[in-house]
Amino acid sequence: MIEKDHPALWRILQNYDLNNDQLQELQAKVIDGGLSPQDAVKDWMQDNRDVWTSWA
Question: Is 2:9 a contact under the CB 8 Å cutoff?
Answer without folding.
Answer: yes
